[in-house]
Amino acid sequence: MTQPCMHVRCGHKGAHRIPTSFKMTSAQGDAHTNDVDVVCQSEPSTYSLDPVDYLPNEILCKIIGFLSVEDLCHLAVCSKAWRNVTNTNSLWLHLCKLRDWERFGTEVDLRKEKPIHSTETRKWGSIPTFQAESVITGDCNVKDLAPTCEWKEVYMRAWHLDRNWSEGRYREHHAYLPVRTYYKASSVASDGRTYAAGDYYGFVRLLDFNSGRFLRKFQATNSTRSQILKIKRASMSRKTKTESDIAIHHMHLKNDIGVAVFKGGMLVFEGSTGNALRRITPSKWSDFDRYLPRKSYFEENKIIVSYNWLDFPLHIWDISDLVEGVDNGACTETILHTETSEDNPHPEASYHLLGCHGHFVITSSLSHPEFLFWDTRTPEIIRIYKGHKGNVSCGHLDENTIMTGDNAGEVKVWTTASDVCMKTLSEFPPEVCLNSHFHHRRINTVQFTDKVIVAGSQSRIVVWSRDGILLNMEDVELRSTSICNRLVTCTRSPELISVWDLSTGKRLYRHEFELGLLDLLYTDDTRIVVQVGYNRLVKMLQFW
Asked: Which side of the chain, N or C, has fewer Cβ within a 10 Å radius?
């Protein structure tokens, strides 16, 4: 049912009145502030025949607690008194919790999310910007109306944002990359505000999204001028970009902290300024500078790097002190390494990084149907999981659950407390698996939330409920996925960005790119950032 507008300023006078002695207490949920109890007064001489006016306070609170948001909005326009009754923090905090919107009043403040200058509005000319005048504040010149309570404002803003995502209302913002930044880029990253590009010669360039202004160029590696010139000459002779030992292989940008990973080390820097925080290089007895970084994660202040040489251990650096701004802070290094044993006969192929969460990491082999579960604090193997038909190719985990995909087109669900498989989900029917090439069946990515499981292969994306019920399946060539308040997918064929509803698994809408889509760079609660191929264009879709 369509919800009515919650932007109610006042109600007509003289409908339902509440006795002078009436005082609201908490309805449902936890009280947020002491001002949730609103005294609604009327003239003592007023006589009402409405029995609701004389119900005990506790009963009235319970009745209001059962009302839907739509009913509460209708009730609020009956009179000023009823508007005050429904304008309580405890009531709207409970409603925010039901929609998983509590974080918009604790972690994410939509009042501080200012729309950047936009070049184009999509969705039939409607604008996604929230109308701030719908919220009554103490500065509003509205007589006798109390300000909108804090958690009702949170609900109003979150509801508006949810509608923007569901209906595809957004503004487009374009930023064109400098020619040198685009053609020399070997790895890119974005945090939604800054664009960072590492190049083949060990340099990083920063671009500000809001202004489109080039910020800074700086060297991340310790390469000498002669080394750089040698690579440039080789590249010019081949008339194409070439893989080099001094190239930036991976870029990360998160919460104003940037990480540039290259052969032999990495640079940690401030994302908005490029100021170096720490250049991490191999210790005297380490030889990890001999190998090219294959895959890297930057999660929870930890940098995890795996290498192209599969028998070379994973390296983990904890940079919490750098992130928190501690002077001369420590940068702790941990190496994951295992030796041959009866439980693990294939140590030389056990360092393919699948995923990480907190202190836990999962790794696999590219030639054996098993994966390892590590505790980085020890660092030791907690458990070896076996049971896949094909080689384990991807994975995702949280505190309690591990999900992995393999080359045979299957997703398996495990717990962190046991090596017993809880559930197996198949992307293809058995008869298709027998006749299709393994590259088309291989699960390249698997992610899950508390509501859905998402898996993608070279030819298909599948969405299941957490109970294993198939919700949706589409034949597309999946490039990457990201989950925020919606599932966002980037596909190669056709080249488009799609937004999916996590509760139903249905695709809400899609955005096609005429010039070709290069990559999905960033998503959060209010925006999507993509790089469009072959014309130096970075595009932001802003839903707020």
From this structure: N
